[in-house]
Amino acid sequence: MTSTVSETCHYPYQALWPATAQRPVLGFAAWSGTGKTTLLKAVIPLLRTAGVRLALIKHAHHDFDVDTPGKDSHTLRKAGADQVLITSGRRWALMQERPEPRDPRLEEELARLDQTSIDLILVEGFRHERFPKIELIRNPGGDRPSLFLQDDSIVAVAAPDELPLECRLPRLPLDCPEAVTRFILDRIATPDD
Question: Among 33, 125, 165, 179, which is least packed by CB within 10 angstroms?
Answer without folding.
Answer: 33
